[in-house]
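Lab meeting, item 3. Inverse folding demo.
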């Protein structure tokens, strides 16, 4: 029956099979008949079949590449006209990523999406979008970090805290991770320090582009490759927890400097855990650690909140890290609810050193 099926129909069938909720064989056969011109019953599945029938072959190709690679290949945009009678973006996101998504306002476009700004069209590639992870108000702590855990004897003998003044005139602690590695360039907006447990791995990575990827080890892509940094260590095998966590990082995280601050897009299949001074009030004695699930994003450094902090604000922190940095741990959380009390006990974590606080 399907011996001479066209490539277009084959792509549509691949997409139908790749849905988050798959049907049985009879349902699949009926769906393919619908894609080839048959009548479809009402409901979401009929809307999806109608969408697939109207997509052009290059659009089906781009969509199949993104869905089957689970975002490893962002592929091209899938531009569709906006229709007041139905939402193609919501339909695609529900079909291939988040079946429980309720509204299109719950997702945010990734910086890598190159869709035009034509208000009459929208990109419906679900892997060009990330689900918003908004803290509730008031935000419940995933865990809290008591500031009395910061002990001077945790620092290396050669490391000392030093006061610096940022461009806005507010005082910030300098990072002990920089270790005199040079001042920031005019175009840099942050430096990245990668840690495994309490050991800094490799040199600082300067970021000038608006968005940067931090990933484990991929044959394609640009940004900070953690496997490359890890090879700079001595040939001593990594700790078991480090090795296991490295294997979970995958596509990692995308960090993006945007108009309202710094956003983190979790592109891995494991959660990330974020600690940032702007995720909590400036007068608090604790900092909160937030869990960002896979496929979600969070504003990890709110520029508006940071500008409203007192001039001599300096949040509490623990371990040999910058008190004004953003800390991101891959796959593992830390705090009183965990066996890992400090971020320096996490197997693989990232320190985002913002230039505005240097």
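The presenter then showed the designed sequence:
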């Amino acid at each position: 029956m399907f011996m001479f099926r066209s490539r277009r129909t084959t792509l549509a069938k691949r997409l139908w099979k790749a849905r988050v909720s798959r049907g049985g064989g009879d349902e699949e056969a009926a769906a393919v008949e619908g894609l080839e011109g048959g009548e479809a019953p009402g409901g979401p599945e009929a809307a999806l079949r109608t969408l697939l029938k109207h997509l052009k072959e290059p659009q089906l190709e781009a969509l199949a590449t993104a869905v089957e690679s689970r975002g490893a290949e962002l592929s091209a945009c899938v531009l569709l006209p906006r229709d007041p009678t139905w939402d193609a973006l919501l339909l695609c996101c529900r079909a291939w990523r988040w079946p429980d998504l309720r509204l299109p306002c719950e997702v945010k476009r990734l910086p890598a999406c190159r869709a035009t700004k034509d208000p009459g069209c929208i990109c419906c590639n679900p892997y060009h979008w990330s689900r918003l992870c908004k803290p509730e108000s008031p935000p419940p702590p995933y865990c809290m970090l008591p500031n009395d855990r910061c002990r001077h004897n945790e620092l290396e003998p050669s490391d000392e805290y030093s006061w610096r003044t940022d461009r806005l005139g507010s005082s910030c602690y300098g990072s002990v991770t920089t270790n005199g590695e040079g001042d920031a360039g005019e175009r840099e907006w942050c430096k990245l320090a990668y840690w495994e447990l309490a050991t800094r791995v490799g040199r600082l990575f300067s970021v000038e582009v608006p968005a940067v990827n931090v990933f484990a080890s991929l044959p394609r892509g640009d940004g900070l490759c953690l496997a490359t940094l890890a090879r700079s260590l001595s040939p001593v095998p990594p700790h078991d927890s480090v090795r296991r966590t490295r294997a979970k990082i995958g596509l990692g995280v995308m960090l993006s400097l945007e108009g309202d601050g710094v956003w983190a897009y979790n592109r891995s299949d494991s959660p990330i855990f974020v600690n940032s001074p702007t995720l909590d009030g400036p007068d608090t004695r604790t900092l909160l650690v937030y869990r960002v699930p896979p496929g979600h994003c969070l504003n990890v450094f709110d520029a508006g909140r940071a500008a409203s902090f007192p001039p001599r604000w300096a949040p509490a922190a623990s371990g040999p890290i910058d008190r004004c940095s953003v800390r991101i741990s891959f796959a593992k959380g830390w705090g009183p609810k965990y066996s890992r009390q400090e971020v320096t006990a996490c197997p693989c974590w990232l320190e985002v050193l913002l230039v505005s606080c240097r």
